[in-house]
Design a protein that fits this description.
The protein has 356 residues and is mainly alpha-helical. It contains 12 helices and 8 strands. Strands 3-5-4 form a 3-stranded antiparallel beta sheet. A 3-stranded antiparallel beta sheet has the order 6-8-7. Strands 1-2 form a two-stranded antiparallel ribbon. β1 and β2 form a beta hairpin.
Length: 356
């Protein structure tokens, strides 16, 4: 090959390698940026229900896991006041400051009352009974009855982010409510029969971690997050039971999670993905809304994941439209149906050719 052509070829190869290197760096930077963007999330307030533990551990748990039943959410006035006969609670925040998580101290007079109301609501939920405002007011301490709207708001928040259960008003005149699970886990969300609390909130958190880790999270990723919720492998949790069995066996058998070995890993490592029932019963946007609720923000605050969730919603709409169009086209190909009313003997003779 002539020297000039060799020189041009060498220059072209160097240019191609340089472009490849730039592209590789850009991809790596984008991945690193998204990983860095992974939010420092506030674990759900698991201390809404009392539980018995040895005294030393109990004190430590109270200190570390007492979390917000927050009064802040998007669009709320920066100053709110709740006044009762012996109760006055004020919340102040600069209007220019972004909403932050408000941690309720143990001295908050409404925290204990809220916990009692949560227990009552879970009792009614497990027995599938209608909930009324009158019944709830019987549970609330008399001196805080004028604070009931705030107590109910906190209880509703706890039910949603801890148990994955929404409190919905069914009759505004009678002030009656019902509790609706975000997903259709068996036995009212407890997964297994008998005693226990709904596991839907835990599942929604795990689905969120999987989504934000690129739709596939290593087992290490999952336990790192669950440990922040004071949920540990091999240690029975007073709400979620034995967590390792729950997430690697029970939820896998129910097809809410997929648990598989990482390819070519030696020693074996494992990872989690959404299972088919998770795809059927929820969506990336709903999971993002759930996480936004816990962190007292809006889904769009999780920038790149919000865009992905929007795209996922659009694709689901397109798929639904396509399926409906296919169903309509198939239906139009069927021959005319036979009469539903039994025909007379004369009609049978005339129309016998229509129905073969």
């Amino acid at each position: 090959m002539p020297r000039g052509q060799k020189s041009k070829l060498h220059t072209h190869e160097k240019h191609h390698q340089a472009q490849g290197g730039i592209q590789h760096r850009r991809t790596a930077q984008a991945t690193a940026a998204k990983e860095k963007e992974f939010p420092s999330l506030v674990p759900p307030p698991l201390s809404v229900l009392p539980h018995r533990e040895p005294a030393a551990r109990s004190r430590n748990t109270l200190k570390t896991s007492q979390r917000a039943l927050s009064t802040k959410s998007a669009g709320v006035s920066p100053t709110r006041s709740y006044k009762g006969a012996n109760c006055k609670i004020e919340k102040k925040q600069s209007s220019s400051q972004a909403p932050l998580t408000t941690v309720q101290s143990q001295g908050d007079p409404l925290t204990e009352t809220t916990g009692v109301l949560v227990q009552f609501l879970m009792y009614m939920y497990k027995r599938k009974k209608l909930i009324t405002k009158a019944n709830m007011l019987k549970i609330v301490n008399k001196k805080y009855k004028n604070c009931f709207p705030e107590i109910l708001r906190r209880a509703s928040f706890s039910l949603e982010v801890v148990f994955g259960v929404d409190l919905k008003e069914v009759d505004s005149t009678k002030h009656s409510y019902t509790l609706v699970s975000k997903m259709d886990l068996p036995n009212n969300g407890t997964v297994s029969r008998g005693r226990g609390f709904p596991k839907t909130g835990l599942l929604m958190n795990i689905l969120g971690v999987i989504f934000m880790k690129g739709n596939c999270a290593t087992e290490e990723n999952i336990w790192e997050f669950l440990n922040k919720m004071r949920v540990y492998a091999g240690k029975r949790h007073f709400i979620f039971g034995e967590p390792r069995k729950l997430i690697t066996q029970d939820l896998v058998k129910l097809k809410y999670l997929e648990y598989r070995q990482v390819a070519n890993s030696d020693p074996a490592r494992y990872e989690f993905l959404w299972g088919p029932r998770a795809h059927a019963e929820t969506s990336k946007m709903k999971v993002l809304e759930f996480w936004a609720k816990i962190n007292h923000t809006v889904p769009s605050a999780f920038h790149s994941w919000y865009e992905e969730a929007l795209q996922d919603e659009e694709e689901q709409v397109k798929a639904t439209v396509a399926l409906q169009a296919e169903a309509d086209a198939t239906a139009s190909e069927y021959p005319r149906e036979c009469p539903t009313v039994p025909p007379t003997p004369n009609e049978v003779e005339v129309d016998s050719s229509h129905c073969g």
